[in-house]
């Protein structure tokens, strides 16, 4: 039996991030349907020979698809998920979007045939410049056309896969904006020229963004997809939509199960609202304001930094804060917060991303 597909074209750490009138409107919408959430899975390589941290083997990937089919998940295209959120249509009880970053050739070789067999739509975020520079590593335009015809949506990962929020030495704000215009807009133009007009969805390289880059995406009419965890919902910032990594250590179906079934914690606001912090801000306080606590066990809410459990301090009925027990590492990290539903499951989930640079303002890939 093939999985029910709603595409336009045919999980807690072991159980177990700017306010605006637009955000306020989203919060009001979400209050009407607090469980209007969908999990978005993020993959990179599907191979046994690529870096383990960003890879899932073909056998493991098939196990993921088997799990979705056997547990009667509805696999939506990325466009359909967007449309449902915009139109406040709600989602099936178990629904998921599948995405791949970079458009590696092993996705065409190993993942695309399986997804076609299971009749599951998916999205591939590509880098046109890198496709030209390293054609043996990435899918060609002809291959992208082929998988597009099989139900894939081809979308934008920038031209260069650079650390976009890093400013170059002596670079002015205008020069940085011009560089971002090339990386984002010219990539979109290349995709549209080769494959026909595609939706304006942009996945940040390395999942890195700041307020200035978010503002540019909003100005240019893009949705922005990040790499820290959590479901997509009306609460999501349209230029920082969260996804669940499903490769490497995150490929374990025992932990992925809870993430796939999770709901978005109804977060109305949080600070700091952009990931990049100062080098000397070693243990930043995360302050979160909820829109409501209906349907969740507020007293059981906990946050996690790595293996550390962080007990929230409640300022009032809707606002809590947590502070890391250990210094954040140099580079990218996150704090996840979860709370069980009144019935025990599913879990409500929220994640805040952090990027702590070194003393020179840099950090590892």
Automatic annotation (TrEMBL):
SUPFAM superfamilies listed in its UniProt record: Glycoside hydrolase/deacetylase (SSF88713)
Taxonomy, superkingdom: Bacteria
Keywords, comma-separated and alphabetical: Signal
Transmembrane regions: none
Keyword Iron-sulfur: no
Locations listed in the record: Secreted
Descriptive protein name: Polysaccharide deacetylase
GO biological process terms, semicolon-separated: carbohydrate metabolic process
UniProt GO cellular component terms: extracellular region
Domain NodB homology: from-to ranges: 94-310
InterPro entries xref list: Glyco_hydro/deAcase_b/a-brl, NODB_dom, Polysacch_Deacetylase
One Pfam family cited in the UniProt record for this chain: Polysacc_deac_1
